[in-house]
Amino acid sequence: MIPDDNQVGGYFKNNYLSFNSIPPIGFLAAWTYYKQGYVDLKIASFICIGFFIGGLIGAKFATKLSNVTLERVFGVALLMISLKMIFAK
Q1: Which is nearest to 43 in space by CA: 33, 58, 57?
Q2: E strand or H helix at 79, and its extent?
Q3: 79 part of a folded domain
Q4: Which residues contact 3 (CB under 8 A, 6 or more apart)?
Q5: Most distant CA pair in the chain: distance in Å?
């Protein structure tokens, strides 16, 4: 039996590849909002710094977790966020 990518470190590789598509899409969306006057550059710069530092720390932390643990952490986070969205007023 030959293991697939998800069984041999593929989880991080596959997510890394999909995460690489986020910056171009995010840039285009941000540019559109900026052109329409919806972006405060001062606040946006702080958000960018936070994403950069948070992404670096998160990636270092996430690569030390097993796939099962990482999936459970994401699952719990998504469940909590979805419940808040459903029941928030």
Answers
A1: 33
A2: helix 67-87
A3: yes
A4: none
A5: 56
The reply to whether 42 falls in a domain is yes
User: Of how many residues is the chain composed?
Assistant: 89
Task: Examine residue 26 and state whether it is found in any structural domain, yes or no.
Answer: no
State the pLDDT at residue 1: 46
C-beta atoms surrounding 34 within 10 Å: 13
pLDDT at position 63 is 87
In whole angstroms, what is the distance from residue 21 CA to residue 35 CA? Answer: 22
Average pLDDT along the chain, 89 residues, taken 10 residues at a time? 50 61 81 92 92 92 88 94 94
Domain hosting residue 68, numbered range: 38-89
**CA pair distance 11, 8, nearest whole angstrom:** 8
Looking at the structure of the chain, the number of domains it has is 1
Q: What is the DSSP string of 12-62?
A: HHHHHHHHTTHHHHHHHHHHHHHHTT---HHHHHHHHHHHHHHHHHHHHHH
